[in-house]
Amino acid sequence: MITGTTANEIAESVRQQIDAGILHPGDPLPPVRALAEQLSVNRNTVSSAYLALARAGAVISRGRAGTIVAGAPVLTEEEGFAPETVLRDLGSGNPDPDLLPLPVLAEVDLRTPALYGDALIDADLREWATAWMRQAQPREFELTVTSGAVDAMERLLAQSLTQGDVLGLEDPCFLSSINTVKLGGYRPIGIPLDDEGMTVEGLAAALDAGARTIVCTPRAHNPTGISLSARRAAALRDLLVGVPHVLIIEDDHYSLLARTPYHSIIPEGHPRWALVRSMSKFLGPDLRLALLASDPDTAQQLRTRLSPGTTWVSRILQRVAVGMLDHEATADNLAKASAHYAERNEALRVLLRERGIAERGDDGLNVWVECGTDARAVSESMMRRGWLVRTGGVFRLDGDESAPELRITAHTLDDAEMRTFADDLAASIAEARIAVANRSRR
Fold first, then answer.
1. Domain C-terminal end among 325, 348, 376
2. Are residues 54 and 137 in the same domain?
3. Is there a single domain that holds both residue 148 and residue 282?
4. Shared domain check, 313 and 394
């Protein structure tokens, strides 16, 4: 039985029961009103206790669905190659290492050391990044450098949400975003996508559910490759005008490689916003660095955890980044990489359409394939044919393993290999449909 007359006593009573194994992960706590009546205390006292427990990660608030005891989050898969596989891996989501501008590293000047108390952002990087970000967001902003896009996302969510708070995420969604939400104890509301990007109806539903933060990928959405149209972006902006308290985060991860234009959903004059641009896709995943433009208040909150002597981003990495970005050969390298990914993906899409296989998306490193049947069965059949592909269920917020999609990273295949892959995929889909039909008749 939960006891106590103050918020601290009630919270401590719950923690003791969790530690003693009396309360288990997933067990519901009494409704606030019921526990308040039982303990003869004000409902605000119980609410404060539950809020403190949620902030400590001991419980999860599910809004009107009540509060439950938290368990260790079950994380989803990560991007990357499958270790020690003999199969041809088309599920990695990686850029082509041969198309990264790594040779210019030899010309980067790293001789001047950065010391405690120096500026957080390298002066040359600040100049380059400010001009680049201003092209996308011609409004007042401040620049922040983080240790990659995932670090930026974690910091933004941590300063705007507490455990149990609602945020709107595209569904399907980037793997690292799903894990960030699970670790933070936030309550995601999935926003569907169509061929023009995040849907207006989905965004409205997330806002109605109490979302305090919205995360949107404006182009080359991972995993689908869908990009926002100008019309859809305008409709989303119109909807967001009425919610100035909502933090809008745009994850423009593909930026310098994108073939589609950047259309922002951030309304003019919106007080809380951030644009995140990672360096991973075009400079390399190992360069753990991202640029973040945001409103001044958000930037100030980010700086409370990014300061010399605590968790600043290495100035050496910053100089490497700006040295690569500003090098005379980089523009041609990026254009070559962008053209290669686009051409290879379109070649695969054509082959899939010729075989009656539906696909979506128009930009990015991947092709989203709609199998029309259980993708797990398709994946197993492809493995027997020597291919490793990634099922779409891991990108779903509900983790639905029976989702009928695959995400294919096929830009390393030549024309002959791509035709073989397309033939094998068509055969595997047909085989999976028969297997699923046979199971349903049993």
1. 325
2. no
3. yes
4. no
pLDDT of residue 315: 85
pLDDT tens-place string over residues 7-45? 999 999 999 988 888 999 889 999 999 999 999 999 999
pLDDT, one tens digit per residue, over 292-310 is: 999 999 998 887 766 544 5
What the block records as the tokens of 232 is 């859809």
What does the buried/exposed string (b/e) look like for 114-143 if buried means 16 or more CB atoms within 10 Å of the residue's CB?
beeeeebbbebbbebbeebbeebbeeebbb
Say how far apart CA 99 and CA 113 lie, in whole Å: 30
What's the number of domains the chain is made of?
3
Neighbouring C-beta atoms of residue 279, cutoff 10 Å:
23
Q: Kindly report the CATH number assigned to the domain that includes residue 335.
A: 3.90.1150.10
Q: What is the pTM of this model?
A: 0.84
- Domain coverage including residue 176: 115-325
Residue 208 belongs to a domain: yes
Query: What residue has token string 């075989």?
Result: 355
Cα–Cα distances (Å) from 35 to 4, 17, 408, 425, in that order, read 10, 15, 51, 56
Integer Cα distance of 297 and 45 in angstroms? 31
Q: How far apart are CA 96 and CA 405, in angstroms?
A: 23
- Same domain as 310, residue 339: no
Specify whether 134 is located in the same domain as 244.
yes
Q: Based on the domain organization, do 120 and 188 belong to the same domain? A: yes
What share of the chain in percent tops pLDDT 70? Answer: 96
Structure tokens at 194: 């169509």
Whether 104 is in a domain gets the answer no
Q: What is the pLDDT of residues 348-367, one digit of tens each?
A: 999 999 999 999 999 999 99
The answer on 428 and 337 residing in a single domain is yes
Enter the tokens of residue 104: 């210019």
User: Are both 65 and 150 inside the same structural domain?
Assistant: no
